Amino acid sequence: MQDEQKKRKLAPAVKFLLGAGVVGSLAACAGIVGLRYFAPDAVESVKITDKLEETEFANADVTGTDLTIGSTVPAQMNSVQFRLGAIPWMSAAGMLHANGGPFTMEGSIAEQWGVNLHIMNSDMYDPQREGLVACATQMFEEKTDYCTKGFTHTYMMGDAAAAYENTLKIMLADLPDEYQAEIIGGFGRSLGEDAFMGPPACIDEPTQCRGLRFAGVMLDGDINTAISWAAANGIAFNPDGDTWDENALNWYYTDSFNEADSAWITGFCEELVVVADGKRTGDKKRVCISGTATWTPGDVRVFRNKPGLVKLLSTWENSGQMGGAIFGIKKLNQAHKKEVIAWLASAYAGGVEVRTQRKAVAHAGQVAFESFGESTGMSAADWTFYYERREKMNPDGSEVSLGGSQAFVLSEALDFYGINKDAGEPFKVAYTYYGNMGSQLWPDILPSFPPHDEVFNPEYLIAVSELEGLERGTEVQSASKADYTEVSTSPKKAVGNMSWDIQFKTGSAKFEIGTERELRKLADQLVLAENTKVEIHGHTDDRGGEEANMKLSEDRAFAVQQWLRNHAPGRFTQGSTSVHSHGERNPLVANNSAAARAKNRRVTIVMFGL
User: Fold this and answer.
1) What DSSP assignment string belongs to 142-177?
2) In 357-408, which residue ranges form alpha helices assigned H by DSSP?
């Protein structure tokens, strides 16, 4: 779905261990791999069935006095028209429902707020950015505060926003600061649809994924789920798409999630150069695709055409990962601040109806179909049906979930975009975390990126929060909060199991100086994985006696739990974490040296999906 790099210059043959939030180069090989193109002929030998299943919503009645639907006639507005280039995504369901159609409709929520909006399908990021550049350039050249060319705003996946903004900043480099782009918030988030899909065996034992090759889009939100899964399980990540490492996740990079899914469905294989410890061995190995990083409708297409994969990690568990990001030009936003605020307010008002009434979801699905067109392969019924996460059964009996988005109400937007700091600032964490991962995995493509605080402008959301008469949706948010009492903590539900290098003073539960950096990295990963229950396991070495060590390991686990609660109380609520003490009973290595004992003094984090 993105084309961050039509000609992908890949990283050196370096293996990265992503565990514990640290990316470390294990070994390096000289030279840069040359340009590489996706070979479409290799994955088009089998016809792909694109039609999705019919649903109960196919002929949904979306009329009713309890909904604000509006008419089928575009409203005649006096305000400036915003032109939104948006990826086809039901996280914007509240905004879609509020607008009433591709254009703002008479009687719609958006019209009542004075919004004048044209929604357009823009599912590739290069055209989105080009649209923003055209708008900014016109305003600069004509000395105006509004544009008739390109897009006034774009909507994309926020966990890919660092790479998106970096390229956009380069494209706008010749223009003054007021013509640069900024993020003003978002309409909702992915809640299950974006996922790292692989064999069921990797759920029971993550190391079973070592040596397998997956298909995905570099610097894409979907591949970010694979990065998170690898980090949570201590699995190395090979960023070089032309090599194979038996101890890492290996990748076949494509230009879109459709191509990635097709590579799995058609059984695409090719010979790769073998690397070991970051060095080319001189051998070659034929490797086939074992899974994909994708989103809806890709997950549905995979299930219908070649079932058998499961979601190893999705934005259901990693619900803090992928919020939407609305980009716009600073000068236009400032000149039309009243309209921007009204637009956001109308979207969150629409979100309340979408979250409380199924008919509103059906209406949003219809607007999605009208706005994004038939090229997506999704009917109005499909958009509606897969707004919610759906459980299906593979032929082997394994369960796979499909779809899943969430439109924000105002209170959730304030939490997600960091206006309310207690929630842990998920958007900022995702922007920074995946930007850093992209820079370290693919430094030649993303050598750096602008800091979050230079790109995100909170003033619009703050202004929305101060409006009188706008329903905040607090009750809606509370009703959808995670229920940690029903979580199964069987190994099959675990989505992450990783030891963290959290240092304590000898014989004490007090942190060593400098430990806070590691704790912040841990907190960031757990803020992203909002829909998980977290077990904190304390371990010691064999010094001090078994009974004393059992108590010490418990105290240390409690210390980590309390630090997390103080850091982000909105994320680490009562019941979301639990403490387990093991003392000296489960050493990683024999306690026969100071270095070995240091390895055994550890805290392990296990995450269970809800």
Assistant:
1) HT-S--SSS-SEEEEEGGGHHHHHHHHHHHTTTS-G
2) 358-372, 380-385
- Could you tell me if 155 and 221 lie in one domain? no
Q: Which tens digit of pLDDT belongs to each residue from 299-353? A: 989 999 999 999 999 999 999 999 999 999 999 999 999 999 999 999 999 999 9
> What contacts 396, CB < 8 A, 6 or more positions away?
200, 308
| Measured distance CA(20)–CA(191) in Å, rounded | 24
Whether residue 243 is contained in a domain is answered as yes
Residue bearing the bigger pLDDT, 96 or 500: 96
Q: What is the DSSP string of 175-214?
A: S-GGGSEEE---SEEESSSSEEEE-THHHH-GGGGTT-EE
Q: Tell the burial category of 178 from Cβ atoms under 10 Å away from its Cβ (0-12, 13-18, 19+).
A: middle
Looking at the predicted structure, is the pLDDT value of residue 429 above 90?
yes
Give the separation between CA 112 and CA 328, rounded to whole angstroms. Answer: 23
Dist CA 430 CA 191 (whole Å): 15
Q: How many CA atoms lie within 13 A of 315 on its CB side?
A: 34
Contact (CB, 8 A) for 322 and 220: no
CATH number at residue 450: 3.40.190.10
Residue that is last in its domain, among 448, 479, 510? 479
| Neighbour-count burial of 41, counting CB atoms closer than 10 A to its CB (0-12 exposed, 13-18 middle, 19+ buried) | exposed
Question: Which tops the pLDDT comparison, 505 or 19?
Answer: 505
Please state which of the ranges 54-58, 354-358, 401-405, 409-413 shows the lowest mean pLDDT.
54-58
Pick the more confident residue, 53 or 441.
441
Regarding whether 324 and 308 lie in a shared domain, the answer is no
